[in-house]
Design goal:
192 residues; alpha+beta; Trna Endonuclease, Chain: A, domain 1; four-stranded mixed β-sheet; three-stranded antiparallel β-sheet; 7 strands; 22% strand; binds zinc ion
Amino acid sequence: MTEHDSLHPYRIRTDYLSSDEIVFYHFLLLNFSDEYIIFSKVALSDLFYVIKPNENVKFAQKLLKKNIDFLLLSKEEMTPLLAIELDDPKQEVHQTNQKLVDEVCDDAKLPLLHMVVSGEYHQEEIKKVLSIAPARLEKNRDGEDEYSPVCPNCGITMVLRFDKAGPIKGGKYYGCLNYPECIEKISVNTLN
Ligand SMILES: [Zn+2]
């Protein structure tokens, strides 16, 4: 049996971005690609983490549920500067998911703009928000205290655990939220 005979169900999407999203992406490219990096469909879990992950497991899991439509980053350090959600006025917005993006960006102080799908976009509004973005993010960094790694298998926040047995009983390590399905461990010391 060759690799191609296996019955894997994966296929490539031909509609990675909708036609409205492609039009908006080209608008961003034309006006902002000289100064910024532009990404689309960035998972919240790639962009944000939760502090005190042991107490905030529910919040960490929420991050797995949604993407941000577009993200502008600085070119030098790839610092996220602005999130943009492209809202389709015709489509019924999934309220819970949208509220989640609003809450997360607000809490983490990442500027977020909602743009309504239209035939014409203007760069002024975006430029205005971008001009204040670095200062806002700097404020957020002041309060930064705890960090936890992301599971290399699952891409989600890991939590602090203690070895209950074995040669390093009582030792601290980071374990995956998907345990026991995922047994990935990262020693606390290797992070220092
Ligand atoms: Zn994992």
